[in-house]
Amino acid sequence: MAIHMQNNDIYTVSRLNSEVRMVLEQQFQRIWLQGEVSNFVAAGSGHWYFSLKDSGAQVKVAMFRQHNRMASVRPQNGQQVLIKARISVYEPRGDYQLLAELLEDAGSGALQLQFEQTKARLLQDGLLASERKRPLPAMIQRLGIITSPTGAAIRDILTVLQRRAPGMEVILYPSLVQGASAARQLCQALTTAYRRDEVDALIIGRGGGSLEDLWCFNDEALARLIAQSPVPIVSAVGHEIDVTISDLVADIRAATPSAAAELVSSDQLHLMERLHRLRRALVQAQRQLLQRFSPRLEQLSQRLQARHPARQLQQQQQRLDDVGLLLQRRMQQQLQRLQAQQQLLDQRLRLASPVRTLQQQRAQLQPLQKALSQAIRQRLQQPQQRWQLLLARLDTVSPLATLARGYSISFDAQQQVLTDASQLQPGQQVHTRLAQGSFVAEVKATTP
């Protein structure tokens, strides 16, 4: 049966995966996601690959080297983490995946997530808008301070005010600035200040500390109460790098409590008013420009990111990591096969080793050596006995034996043995040998 195509535009698999990836990346913004890490792999290229799962599902995650370098923790299997990621597709396999850009431990990350969620709700309600923020009064006669009466913040503020505005009256509304009940006490202090309506401006804050120490100033109820203040509020929480929800909602944020005291001092008021006007004008102009160009910029940015060579490079890097991991597994399998073959050959070599045969032959050789030694000794005993007999017979006819029996041998001057007295003449010297030693004698007379 012939199939007639109504549309000649036939997709390839590569084209389909590429366009699906572009659609996902353009349609979905970056998201925060929390889950448990599993199947974590750190590739040789420096990229991280793992799955993020909960009780009902899981999704693959890739975190490339340029992003995981800034991660506060190195994920471990079973660890709960919080990630900020983009949705994408790994084209070679058609796998839907997340490209992580930020990764935090779920413990500290949960506080940051709660901070961002509170900030988003306040922003949606317009409580962070610059239009609602008020400048400080031109002349502050009575200043309210909400902080701990024993902390360093109150001492710093009073020191600056004593130097810059000694005539200013200060009213302290004491409150805890750390701990579980701190946010509730801060709200009570604010309510008291609103009810009494006796100050021209308020400073709320404390000295520096950790994120947990400053967390009471991120309370949403406190932020909404600050937004209802009938007088301008200066928020001075922590150090310059610390930013809290109270800082964002207050009319003015001061980097430190001492800086807040300088802001409310009279000799800085005109400059601060001008700076605030310029700031509001600049923020408004920037907001208008952003509102005008933001949609188009976002669209172009998404298209650029989708077609940027870095995205293709990331795809290729991920594919290279897959090939590298596959090659590593194949090499391990090949090494295991070779090790098994080597063990088999070692076993066969031990079975065919000549050591056992040599041991058996050595055991057979030992009795033969003993028998040979015994035969050689028996063979030598017969010549030895015969030799001893000949020695005995030779000894019986030896002149040395005759000498040993008391006889002697005499020689003339030419060493000729003397056997007849007629061979000698009176006065002739005769050499005589005994069994032990010899002597020389002179002939006196001879007897036939």
CATH topology of the largest domain: Rossmann fold
Rounded radius of gyration (Å): 57 Å
Order of helices and strands: HEEEHEEHEHEHEHEHEHHHHHEEE
Structural class: alpha/beta
Major β-sheet annotation:
5 strands, mixed, barrel
Helix content: 40-55%
Count of individual domains: 4
Number of strands: 13
Summed up, the helix count is 12
Q: According to CATH, what is the class of the largest domain?
A: Alpha Beta
Level-2 CATH architecture of the largest domain: 3-Layer(aba) Sandwich
Q: Per the principal axes of the C-alpha atoms, what is the gross shape? A: elongated
Terminal CA distance = 163 Å
Biggest sheet, spatial arrangement of strands: 1-2-3-5-4
Overall average pLDDT: 84
**Unreliable runs, pLDDT <50, ≥5 residues?**
none
CATH homolog superfamily of the largest domain: Response regulator
Fraction in beta strands = 15-25%
